[in-house]
User: Fold this.
Amino acid sequence: MAIEAHQEKLSFQAEVKQLLNIVVHSLYSNKEIFLRELISNSSDAIDKLRFKALSDPALYESDTELRVRIHFDKEAKTLTVSDNGIGMSRDEIIENLGTIAKSGTREFLSRLTGDQKKDSHLIGQFGVGFYSSFIVADKVTVLSRMAGLSHEHGVRWESTGDGEYTVENVDKATRGTDIILYLKEDQDEFLNEWRLRTIITKYSDHLNIPIQIPKYTDDGKPTADWETVNRATALWTLPKSEIIEEQYFDFYKHIAHDFEPPLAYTHHKIEGGHIDYICILFVPQHAPFDMWQREHHNGLKLYVQRVFIMDKVEQFLPQYLRFMRGVLDTTALPLNISREILQDHPVIPKLRSALVRHSLDLLERIASEDQLKYMQFWKEFGNVLKEGPAEDFANRERIATLFRFSSTQTEGDEQTVSLKDYVGRMKPTQTKIYYITADHLQAARFSPHLEIFRKNNIEVLLLTDKIDEWVVSHLPEFDGKPLQSVAKGDLSPEELSETTDAQSEDQKHEQEQTFAALITEMKAMLGDKIKEVRLSKRLTTSPSCLVRDQSAMGPQMERLLKAAGQPIAEVKPILELNPDHVIIQKLKDSADHDKLADWTHLLYDQALLAEGGNITDPAAFVQRMNKLWLQTL
Assistant:
């Protein structure tokens, strides 16, 4: 059936216009990067064809010699990058080249600073691919035909990068994609055979597809013969002793579409066991902007017997390691494996276990060898790694050793304290790892719950990330030491016996009798706001605080679930009073019922504010404060 060759003029998505302008100006100092990006896209297209042709060999259309070809025309001032990969349909061209189908785009754009040097790093994290063509070209033409479609289904896409582009159907005899760059006046350097060879060798030598340029005559004219420039050998198949670090870096940039080298990498070749496989795993320097988006796709590139099978395969790594990038090549899976079959294939758990082990080994190596590098990793991916204890019970202890926190023995905002550090500093008689959760660091540092611990120089971990309370609920102990919230349960003097003078049973009973009437009255006045009122063993300077039962949900998690609209059972806190505080002493002896009621509600509201909660009746709180100030004045 003939296809109507009508031309359509369309506008770029708003974000594309903005991104094009930023790419052209911020990356101009590293303009050769455009060729690496175009070759990388061609490589992906060829990989996709290889995979689809496993089940439908007719897609090869009698052309099984897969390759990328690059040539230039000095007179026309054009540079062309061609591949015979999977190709694109009209709809795919509009979707892939006219819009950015990537979550997190707006967040990415909002974080740009206007500083070209800094922004170039951000752009690298986002990945610009095809759009980098406009760094060197005034106009870009794309000719493409999807494999399996007839010649009249070819598509021409064209734009000058000024906000609009045209799309029309054309006749294209061969499958795949040709990208023709009409170079700017000052970009003649790319109309040079040796310049192209240098760029291809520098960025794409590791690709396992041939990248070819024409053989040229002595007077610079291209011949009909093509020459392969790169080694065209998969990097992971080479002996590790033959691979230099720069090759690992270039390979990472290709598979991750990143402009910066990885933070760290590891390379393993396992043979002779139950499962043969090769893997190269990378830790990026920066988190992608869509790390927390539900649409975010992650995973490894999967090869079976050197044949590319699929991209972003999630089955080999758990979600808490979703930041890892890399490739896996194995002989233990069939060539016709699909995502559906992967779900239940008996080999997957074994491969997954091995890759998790390699990933954790790599992170432990960074943590032990380079603290600064590990802190960079922790800032970017710490909250993702914290999902580990809930997801991976078998490796819970290993994952926990990688955690870093602030504590009462550190200054500043840096999270530098490991659980191993904490255990090493525990008091001789201390049996628990103490922590406090709060919405931010200042609230944690100055919480009244820390008073007895600060007085006795007992370290407390300050957990201020939103995920922390959920983490400790899945990490009940570390190194045999239970984790204990300082804001939950009832502290016993024996826990702090090294530095705390324990009261005798008679003294406790006498004190409880002394304050019994006050406690009864205050409990009646607060009603169902609280579970009970009791004397505190954790306060030294504050008059009151709120605590919860040992098994109760913490206030931080409660607020998060409420904000997400989740139904939760109401948790009634316990109001603890400091029997040595002057306010509590005076209230004990007060006969003024109205004044006691004001003070009772005021103490409760103050304790609620101290733990980061919200007062239900702010107006009443202000009235009580003003009333008590007037009485004092």
Summary: The chain has 21 helices and 22 strands.
